[in-house]
Every structure is written in C-alpha cells, then in structure tokens.
Amino acid sequence: MHRYRQLPIACLALWLLSACSDSDDGDNPPPPDPDPDPVAQRGDLIGDPQLAASYSPEELLAVAVSNDVAALLLEAVLTPECAIEVYRISYQTVDPAGNLTPASAALMVPNDTGAACQGGRPMVVYAHGTNTDVAFDMSDLESANNTEALLMAGVFAAEGYIVVAPNYVGYEGSTLGYHPYLNADQQSKDMIDALTAARSALPLATAPDTTDDGRLLVTGYSQGGYVAMATHRALQEDGASVTASAPMSGPYATSAFGDAIFQGRVTGGSPVNLTLLLTSYQNAYGDLYASPAEAFEPQYAADIDGLLPSSSSLSELVDQGLIPDDAIFSSTPPDAAYADLTPATTPANLAPVFATGFGTDHLLTNDFRLAYLQDADLHPDGGFPTVVDGLPPVAPDNPFRIALKANDLRNWTPAAPMLLCAGNADPAVLYLNTELMQNYWSAETTVSVLDIDSPVASGDPYESQKEQFAAAREILELAGGEDEVLQNYHAGLVAPFCLSAVKTFFDGF
Fold this sequence. Notes:
Layout: E1 45-55, H1 57-66, H2 71-77, E2 84-94, E3 100-110, E4 119-127, H3 147-155, E5 162-166, H4 184-205, E6 210-221, H5 223-237, E7 244-248, H6 254-262, H7 270-285, H8 298-301, H9 314-319, E8 329-330, H10 351-355, E9 358-359, H11 366-378, H12 399-406, E10 418-422, H13 432-440, E11 447-451, H14 463-507
Parallel strand pairs: 4-5, 4-6, 6-7, 7-10, 8-9, 10-11
Antiparallel strand pairs: 1-2, 2-3, 3-5
Helix pairs in contact: 1-3, 2-14, 4-5, 6-12
C-alpha cells in the first residue's frame, strides 16, 4: 500500500539577546533589531513540500489499472522501475497584471536504490492540458480525471526523472478568480516560478541522494503544449539553460487557429476552450467586450465571466444550461458571404466534427462572429486560410484578434533541440498549428516534427510509438467506427504515444 504522511513545518529559531555589559565604558551597543521579514518574490516556496503519496512501481501500475487507463496503453508506455514520492508544493507567481499570487504544483521524485533512481537526475517541467475542474491537482494521481499526472509519474518519475507539474493559476491553491488561459506571458512565468520553487523544495522533500543535475527538459500536452513552447521561449529570453523541449499537440499559432474556428472549422471542445479563452483575455486586456452580452448569447452571458474553471462538472454545467454541449455558432450565417463557412466542409474527414459546432443554442452571437470574420478578411493571417508568409496578421483591428496575435508563438526560434509531436487528424487542436510552426522553422535544424499518425519511415526513431498508435487506432475503429476514433483521438490516442516518443527524445540527453 502507498503511505500518506505530512512533512513537519520547519520551526523558527529563537534568538536570545544578551544582557548589557556592566563595564564602565558604556560603549557596548544595543543588540541589532531582528531582520525584517523578506519581501515575497516570484518563485518563493510557500511553506514546506507536502507529501501526497509514495508508490512502488507495482503500486503505480495498480493505480493506473484502477483509473481505467487502457491495458494496451499501460503495456506500451508504462514500464516503471523506481519507487517515487509525490509532493504538493505552493509557491509565489504573478497574475497577468504582475501582482503576486499563490499557486501550486506537483513535485514527483524518484527515490529508490537503483542507479537510475537516485543521485543527480534530469528535471522535466510538464504543462497539463485544458481542465474545467477548479480543484484540479497534478499531485493527486488517484483522481478519476488525472490520467496526465499518472502518465507523468509512470513514464518519467518512475524512470528516473524529477517532474515538476504546475496546476496553474486559477486552479488548486490559487486565489485568482479565473485562469489566464493561453496567456503566453503569464503562463510561462507560472511554469518558471514553479520550477524555481521546486528546486528550493527538493532538498526539503527527499533524501540527499536525489538531486537536480542541471538538465532541464520542458514538455506539455494540448494547452500544455502551448504553455511548454511559451516557457521554452521565456527561459531562452531570460538566458536560462534549456536542454531540450517537446511541445505536444498545442495551439501554438493562436491567430491562425482562431481564424480557422471562426471560419467554420469548429473543433471538439470549443465551448470550453473559447469560454476560457475569451474570459482570460477579457480579464487580461479588458477590451474584448464592454459587457459579456456583446459576445455571448443572452442565456449564457450573465454567468459566463466566472464560470470556468468550476467546482461543478462540465456535464452539470451543460445540464444547467450554463454552457452549450457543442454549438459555438448559429446555423444561420452572420452574412450571406459566409454561408460556405457555416460550417466548413474541408477537410472532409473532420467535417462531421465541424458541423457539431453549429446549432440553435449556440454560445457566441452572430454579431461577434461577423466582426471577427470581417477583420480576418481585411487583415488575413499569413498562414490561414492561404499560406502567404506563414506569419500572424500585420495589424488586426478586432480586439479578440489583437489578443490572439499577441499570444501567437510564431515570433521566436529555439536555440535548444525541440521535438513537436501531434497527430494529423486531430479534431480538437488542428494539426494546422504544428504545420505552421514546422514551416516557420523550416530552416532550423534544432526542430524536428513527429506526426504520430503517419507511416513508419526507414530508420524511424519512433517506429514503436507509431506502430502502437496504429494498433490502438484500429482497435477503436473496430469497436465503434470512425466516430469512436474521433472521440478519443486527441486525449486517448495521441497523448500517450506522443508522451512515449518524448521520453525517447529526452532519453537522448
């Protein structure tokens, strides 16, 4: 059985002041005043690390089975060899306005006698995907909705890596009333501050046999893929050493991706993603709308600003009519000129997904969509719908498109090696994002791209992951047809096999 305990809080030292001397010269100075409390800074550890749980390799696999992770995926990607300890740490970071605010993260540490499980170990900083649960906690491996934490523990921590996985501002341990979703500046600072705090926590959390050896690896999936890339950029700009990074299936080209959605390619999960995104940018920039009713339909506008993340499940929010299940836009075009984009019908394999984004109980007003589309016509993105220079629009006027451009990651070049992994038929985060980054960095030898849903090439370093992905895809298709594949493609198929490929990539360093 895994065991639970809490580390004692460190005691404060008591300083005894000496009595004044009886000497006659009267020159003895009074004792100095105690040092004032230090001013809180970004990356400060708040309190001691708290042990959430310890797992042997066998116990970790048992938890994975209890969380209904498919046996095929277990066999493919989980081969733990180290006992691990999982800690929860709290730390200081900043909100988008630069104000200090608390946040929390998981710190997963190998702690075993094997050579690969102690001593100097590389550190992986992981950014998780979109989650609607305000109490989401990467240190809780046994939560029913926390397969990401389980995979990071099994694939990395239990194979000799130290893992730092922030929960993000707006989630467990945070006092901010919203989550700064896809805000590149804030989210990268959150990640870097978690890393700083984790380095302070590590000596307090483990025996001295497990230490940070200086190798820093950055990765993340979906929203976390975007955050991982933004974090690599920020670390590089700060002059910090990054060994390598591996963003997975992220919406890196936010401007082009936003245009694709508004031009009818409505991806799966869009009600959640756009609600988080619009309210995030409204809180950060203050000019997307004067009131929520300018963007959101009346039945959603009153409660939308503070809706996500939530203590209620997504299904409960849908049942209560607070957010639509699928529909983002009206089935009636905002103008006759956009009839062929209501919905988009290409690529054909994703057309059924796009169609579900249109309906009667839709999230956004036609006026809001029309203003966006007209701005996209006047100030087109250079990568979508037509590839020109591959860059974001030069000077958009629409406030939402201005915010998307400000957070688009087509504006830097990694100096350290980077692997981009994704699947070409992803219905949730369009492969367009990976293609645009690949084209943007086409001359860079530091960047490699893995389409996990592509044929095995001669000498392919990711042959096993591609074959395992294809086998899992075939099983799903036999069980439920193409609909079953589409439902599970982003999180259930691509995620574990891309993560396995990232492990292979990182092992090379």
